[in-house]
């Protein structure tokens, strides 16, 4: 595999002076405090600080505590961290019978977002120029492919494209939504604008008929645009709620959303746990009409899907699903699934892939389980992906999928932090998988970045978000 990095088309390597951002003014946010005995999540002086095993274990412990109902997850994290919370590290006082801290809802959401930013390693600021260079030099791609920095976006996650040449919206898990735009078509986004700052986990974004849909933790909201439509530069106000029948919990509450070929909005509803029984509003993918009406079940028994796309030609919906934790380094697998018939069941909480999950080893699932069409390595955190349908990429890539693997957080030996290629045959079925791009995880365990989402641009280039480095990459082929 050849090393190809730091290039964006005919304009040569993307190199910017230190402390100069792609937008001319770098957005910086304060790094979270060191979480006490758990150790730093990343170095304040270098974004390549290894993700320590202790930090990963503390995060897992806090989620276990929350799932068991002992205390709110964010209070558990505060306790594990040893510094956050109120009253000398104690959890915030709970209201009678509520299971939540007293105080305003705004305050509680602000606390959750602040703690999640540290625990989930969201980028506190875009990478410095020297860090960008280090990342680009480290990434390896097949011969002929090139990767460059397209934009700096703190905590960059889901991608929502608009019309060619229009703004591209980037979601996050820390309350912010950005729009980026390549004004002159040179492969670099000259405009990077923060459009919202205090939303409830705006991870899922989708565009339809000149409207921006935001799948938040607690609802689906719509922004109809300003006087210039989506192309303006004003705040995303006002937002109109069109659907709010969600289980409002942060654990796996970062929704993913896309419009399907049928004109309906598809939204993932993660299970708020590691392994647990599901309800009518958890562990599913649903679809709704653009006005929020006519909810339909698309897939059931889905632990946590943070990526789906429709296969060109067949129109079949494929989705990723993240496997359960704390069953060892190698099981259960992450999954790529196909929805041949809406409403099918994909196994959770009884099965992860073809593996019986903890607590269900001797049980036969009471439903017919649909097996995954591709199994990825356990704990790779396979998230967003897109199918290749581009004249820019080689002919033998047409119809294949590129999948972002965010990377493990509790495996004894880290894995993931890369892009995978899933090869599809002429019959439209998957034939195999292979590493496409890697280097974000260094051999010594240091982490340079964590890919999140993939989207093919109108010109055929691939955009890839990275919420750890705070970057959006552009991958081309020559």
Automatic annotation (TrEMBL):
Coiled coil: none annotated. Residues 27-51, 85-108 are annotated as: Disordered. It comes from the Bacteria. Residues 239-470 form the Glucose/Sorbosone dehydrogenase domain. InterPro entries: 6-blade_b-propeller_TolB-like, Glc/Sorbosone_DH, Quinoprot_gluc/sorb_DH_b-prop. Pfam families: GSDH. Gene3D superfamilies: TolB, C-terminal domain. This is Sorbosone dehydrogenase family protein.
């Amino acid at each position: 595999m050849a090393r190809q990095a730091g290039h964006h088309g005919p304009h040569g390597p993307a190199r910017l002076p230190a402390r100069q951002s792609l937008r001319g003014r770098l957005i910086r946010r304060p790094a979270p405090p060191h979480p006490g005995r758990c150790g730093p999540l990343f170095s304040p002086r270098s974004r390549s600080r290894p993700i320590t095993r202790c930090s990963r274990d503390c995060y897992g412990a806090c989620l276990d505590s929350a799932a068991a109902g002992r205390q709110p997850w964010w209070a558990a994290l505060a306790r594990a961290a040893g510094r956050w919370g109120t009253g000398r590290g104690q959890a915030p006082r709970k209201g009678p019978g509520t299971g939540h801290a007293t105080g305003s809802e705004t305050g509680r959401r602000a606390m959750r977002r602040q703690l999640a930013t540290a625990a989930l390693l969201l980028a506190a600021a875009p990478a410095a120029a020297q860090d960008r260079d280090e990342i680009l030099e480290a990434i390896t791609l097949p011969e002929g492919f090139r990767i460059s920095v397209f934009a700096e976006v703190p905590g960059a996650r889901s991608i929502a494209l608009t019309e060619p040449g229009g703004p591209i919206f980037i979601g996050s898990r820390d309350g912010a939504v950005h729009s980026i735009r390549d004004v002159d078509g040179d492969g670099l986004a000259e405009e990077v604008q923060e459009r919202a700052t205090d939303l409830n986990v705006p991870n899922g974004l989708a565009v339809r008929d000149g409207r921006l849909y935001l799948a938040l933790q607690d609802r689906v909201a719509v922004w109809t645009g300003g006087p210039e439509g989506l192309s303006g530069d004003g705040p995303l106000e006002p937002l109109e709620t069109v659907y709010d029948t969600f289980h409002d919990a942060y654990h796996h509450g970062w929704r993913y959303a896309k419009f399907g070929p049928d004109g309906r909005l598809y939204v993932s509803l993660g299970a708020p746990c590691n392994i647990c029984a599901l309800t009518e509003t958890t562990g599913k993918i649903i679809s709704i009409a653009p006005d929020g009406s006519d909810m339909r079940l698309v897939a059931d028994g889905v632990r946590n899907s943070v990526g789906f796309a429709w296969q060109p030609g067949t129109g079949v919906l494929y989705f990723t699903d993240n496997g359960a934790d704390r069953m060892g380094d190698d099981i259960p697998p992450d999954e790529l699934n196909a929805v041949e018939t809406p409403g099918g069941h994909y196994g959770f909480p009884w099965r992860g892939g073809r593996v019986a999950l903890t607590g269900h080893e001797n049980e036969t699932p009471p439903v017919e389980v649909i097996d995954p069409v591709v199994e990825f390595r356990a704990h790779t955190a396979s998230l967003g992906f897109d199918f290749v349908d581009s004249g820019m990429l080689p002919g033998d890539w047409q119809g294949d999928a590129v999948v972002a693997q965010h990377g493990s957080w509790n495996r004894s030996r880290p894995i993931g932090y890369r892009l995978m290629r899933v090869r599809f045959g002429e019959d439209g079925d998957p034939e195999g998988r292979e590493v496409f791009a890697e280097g974000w995880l260094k051999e010594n365990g240091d982490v340079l970045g964590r890919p999140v989402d993939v989207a093919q641009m109108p010109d055929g280039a691939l955009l890839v978000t990275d919420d750890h480095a705070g970057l959006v990459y552009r991958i081309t082929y020559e």
